[in-house]
Amino acid sequence: MAPSRQARSTPSPISPFTSLANLLRRSQRARLILLIAPALLIIGVFMLLPLGLMAYVSILERGINGGVQWGVHTVDAYVAFLFEEDLLGNLAINPDYLQIFGRSFLLSFVTTAACLAIGFPAAFYMALQPEKYRNLLIFLVTIPFWTNLLIRNYAWILLLRSNGLVNESLMGLGLIDAPITLLYTNFAITLGLVYSFLPFMVLPIYASLEKLDLRLVEAAFDLGANKRRAFQRVIVPLALPGIAAGCILVFVPSLGAFITPELLGGSRSMMIGNLIQSQFGAARNWPLGAALAFALLAIVLLAMMVYLMRFRRPPGTG
Amino acid sequence: MKRHLTAAVAAGAVLAGATAAKAEGELFLYNWSNYFPPELLTKFEEETGIAVTLDVYDSNETMLAKLQAGAGGYDVIVPSGYMVAILIEEGLAQQIDTLSMSNGTKVVAPHDAPFFDPERLYSAPYMWGTTGFTYNSARVEDKLEESWKEFFEPRPELQGEIALLNDEVEVYNAAAYYLGFNKCTESPEEAQAILDLLEAQKPHVKMYQSDGTIDRMISGEVIMHHQWNGASHRTWVDLPTAVYVYPEEGITFWTDNFMIPTDAPNAENARTFINWMLAPENAAIASNFTGYMNAIEGSSDYLDDALKANPAVNMPPEFADRLRPSIDCSVPARELRNRVWTRLKS
Question: Which end of chain A is more exposed for a tag (fewer CB within 10 A), N or C?
């Protein structure tokens, strides 16, 4: 308290900097605000501001030549998402966008499940290795990230196409007579997504398994649990935060993917990312594109809240 | 016209002038990807001392969206005809009065008076071409008819061996020509008929992709490809059995044009560039690279023989009445078109 008393006793004018410094010294709250200010600024400028702009664009009238008519408000875009006008001018449910949303969610769900099925054992194996090998293994997992996503998708085209490596090998082994259709299918899209996002599943699960206290597993064995029971009741619950984080990190970017469906799916059917892109591009309907992006955001947020509520319960009570 | 998807990703790949040291100024060119010979940029820099920076886009709409969103800093853009009209209407381009430039008299008819800019006040021609389809004649038994029928109702050996451009406008237009409809139709019944045709064709379509059409034909991944004629020419150079078809029901013909955005920082350099590109030799170098025809008198002296020998580029005169201009449609027509496209892919 000595410095502040001294400041009060000196009548000479103090600079704003000095007063700010004094405020920070006195108030823990002010220090806290200053410390989180950069984070708030970044969230505000790079997240809330663009999102707010998108929200505003979604309730504007479309411009004749693309763009929007500023100041002319309408909810047409949200109506168009769910309904279409039939020939007589009546509104009927429009299944197109819902179908595209449905396909995107299904493909993303399968992708997440496949990533979990491959990623969990991989992360478990990594966590059990001696410490000196672990960093090397993490390093190996991240290697695909060094190459551009587009290039990696092209590589899969070379592998999967009818005269590609996979078909040639299978035919060389005599397992098939004619090339099978692998490319330009939902299978190819899912494969591409799994390949692209697998590290996002492995790394968080590894992070939670690495901290796992193996004595707890030993204790489970001592108390009569067999391997399966110890895995189910001890290891998986302790790894749950990592699993949850991994699932979110895979599921959300899969939903927005648009390069993989275009290249590996041959654009035969759209995912949400392609739909939104087409509204800002060829369709020149910015409000609908923005509304679609918001519908996606709302659904993801809702799913995320349900998910978090489920996993916030302490392990073992569910 | 969406030529290369990679553009979206490669947009950051910027070609900066090597001669920047003696630069008299700068020029920011915003062009389609893979649509301007790099050596021609070097030639321009050497002759004028203006350093060029290139940025690329993959469709007219991408470029429009960027300008509408307020992106400044581009001196020269290269929109297709219908987009020229939109940019003029939106006040996004400035007057350049092409025909009064020193090389302006070299613009040949009818490119000196296109419907989208009848007096060439705002735009100068770069390349023009058509959107038809190419097939590998070595892999079909008979010669195909010059009709969209071969494309939309393929014979058995072509089923599953066809690739379409992933381009809402081009696919819809081709279907409208085949069915004899106005491509800007506002009739829901006609749009439904177009959707029925496209949905019946879809099982025979291997993929919808605008990127890599040339490689896909050469490697034999497909037998038939919906293609721009310049790409067809570049296919033909490596695959001599490739045949480009001008369907009798109609084929879209388009022109890409130079324009100067309203807020161009180096408008004077942009005018220098456009006038320089109207010189026959320079226009020919561009044609030799892209495989598309330019609209400049006297450029044929500098054209590669291959270009002149290929009917895909050097269109036989009897096909002239099959050409249909690329135009912009009304909002209701565009909405129908987008609904057809979305339902096709839902």
Answer: N
Beta strands (DSSP E) in chain A are 60-62, 68-73, 83-85, 91-93
Q: Is residue B300 part of a domain?
A: no
Q: How many other CB atoms are there within 10 angstroms of residue A301's CB atom?
A: 10
Q: Are residues B22 and B91 in the same domain?
A: yes
* In-domain check, residue B305: no
Provide the residue type at B231 as one letter. Answer: A
- List CB contacts (< 8 A) between A270 and chain B: 342, 345-346
Q: Smallest Cβ distance to B346: which of A66, A96, A281?
A: A96
Residues B218 and B335 in one domain: yes
The domain A100-312 having CATH identifier 1.10.3720.10: the answer here is yes
List chain B pLDDT tens, one digit each, 346 residues: 444 444 433 333 333 333 333 447 999 999 998 899 999 999 999 999 999 999 998 788 889 988 988 887 899 999 999 999 999 999 999 999 999 999 999 999 889 999 999 999 999 999 999 999 999 999 999 899 999 999 999 999 999 999 999 999 999 999 999 999 999 999 999 999 999 999 999 999 999 988 889 999 998 989 999 999 999 999 999 999 999 999 999 999 999 999 999 999 999 999 999 999 999 999 999 999 999 999 999 998 999 999 989 999 988 989 999 999 989 899 899 989 999 999 999 8
B5: which chain A residues are within 8 Å (Cβ-Cβ)? 262-263
B196 close to A (CB below 8 A): no
- Given an 8 Å threshold on Cβ–Cβ distance, is A284 in contact with B206? no
Per-position DSSP letters for A75-138, written without gaps between them:
-HHHHHHHEEE-TTS-EEE-HHHHHHHHHHHHHHHHHHHHHHHHHHHHHHHHHHS-HHHHHHHH
Q: Which residue has the tokens 């002239």?
A: B320
Number of domains in chain B: 2
**In chain A, residues 254-293 whose CB comes closer than 8 Å to chain B:** 259, 262-263, 266-270, 274-275, 278-286
User: Could you give the ipTM of this predicted complex?
Assistant: 0.80
**pTM for the model:** 0.83
Integer Cα distance of B273 and B279 in angstroms:
10
Test A266 with B188 for CB contact under 8 angstroms.
no
Q: In whole angstroms, give the CA distance from residue A256 to residue A231.
A: 34
3-state helix, strand, coil in chain A (%, to 5): 75, 5, 20
Check CB contact under 8 Å for B59 and A281. Answer: yes
Q: Are residues B231 and B145 in the same domain?
A: yes
